[in-house]
Amino acid sequence: MQGMGRWEPNARGRLEQAALELYLERGFEQTTVAEIAKRAGLTERTFFRHFADKREVLFWGSGTLQEQLVNAVADAPESATPMDAIAAAIESAGVLLQLRGESARQRQAVIAANTELQERELIKLASLSAALAEALRRRGVAEPAASLAAEAGIAVFKIAYVRWIDETGGPDVSRLIRESFDELKAVTAGR
Amino acid sequence: MQGMGRWEPNARGRLEQAALELYLERGFEQTTVAEIAKRAGLTERTFFRHFADKREVLFWGSGTLQEQLVNAVADAPESATPMDAIAAAIESAGVLLQLRGESARQRQAVIAANTELQERELIKLASLSAALAEALRRRGVAEPAASLAAEAGIAVFKIAYVRWIDETGGPDVSRLIRESFDELKAVTAGR
DNA sequence: AGCCTGATGACAGTCACTGACATCGCTGGA
DNA sequence: TCCAGCGATGTCAGTGACTGTCATCAGGCT
Predict the structure, then answer these.
(1) CB spacing of B190 vs A156 below 8 angstroms
(2) CATH number belonging to the domain at B11-53, selected among 3.30.750.24, 1.10.10.60, 1.20.1600.10, 3.30.70.270
(3) Could you read off the pLDDT of B168-179 as tens digits, one per residue?
(4) Quick check: B149 contacting A, CB < 8 Å?
(5) In terms of C-beta density within 10 A (0-12 exposed, 13-18 middle, 19 or more buried), how is residue A6 classed?
(6) Which of B49, B191, B54, B7 is nearest to A91 (CA)?
(7) B60 in Cβ contact with B16 (< 8 Å)
């Protein structure tokens, strides 16, 4: 069966929860790993057995997101252009994040307040871009078109997501994403 | 006058040199700041007076690059579209990097071998993107067009630069950049 | 009951980074 | 010429992230 903890269950989840709370209360830098572990009823050493470093605790969901994106590209109809496939994937990812709602906003607030966390987020996005490009190549898209389409998709996502976070009562993510894709098309056409 | 050191001159330059050498010889993680300082004839504490952290020593040039990009956007003719201005800026930056030639390749080799350094590079690129977007806004370009054009330009730059690094004897950067812009236009048009 | 396995605790150690204070080598003025 | 001031460097002690190692503990299996 799966590796469920034997003692108090869900040690990883408790660590995630404790970390997010403390990062929100005191800020990322002002929080020590020892404090996180203590709040979760564990030790510092155990924290590092579950997460590679102090930042990674905020980025657990990125694996799921990557699968979602890759599957969406793979499942796009044969007739779809590369950009169609990317747009479909980005939209589906947007929907996923919209479901997380308030917790997504909290997470972004923590990240926005700290440069180290922004670095980590950027490399996660780069990883998503690489996965998208790879998925396009499996559809037969050549380089550099695959990488460019992937990077453009991630750029659209970044911008639409920031807009969604800022406008609290605004429109849903999907619409912002579609609008941004149109905007990108218009901008790149102007040469 | 400028702040030239009073003792052995150019302490910062010696630290840069020593760091690059050691990163190339042993790798970034296997090098301690104490070793860098010793090779430069200084102490660890002095290293941190010149560079915010162990990674920053590899990214000194990024300030110059940012100025170059911003100036190029500002100097683009009135008639230029946003994407024209961005393309001109990216090309001028490419030329600048091509001048650094071999040392640019060494630097990229070190960065490519280490995830932390890639994180730092990505946030520098994000900073360039923000500066480009700001420069476009000063030309009267509205959001989100400004940010999208800037992000697209940086995406093109990333991809063209990687290609240039890989193909040792290949064409010059400018041509790769122009080709990538054309490719991006074609890809985004397909929807 | 006794054994095995995986998760956790305990502990020591390295290294990045910081704050506080002493020191040194020049530079400009008395 | 000499000395006061200043900026760059050295010294030292300390914090906290992260790692390696070994002991320990809970539950499953026989």
Answers:
(1) no
(2) 1.10.10.60
(3) 777 789 999 999
(4) yes
(5) exposed
(6) B191
(7) yes
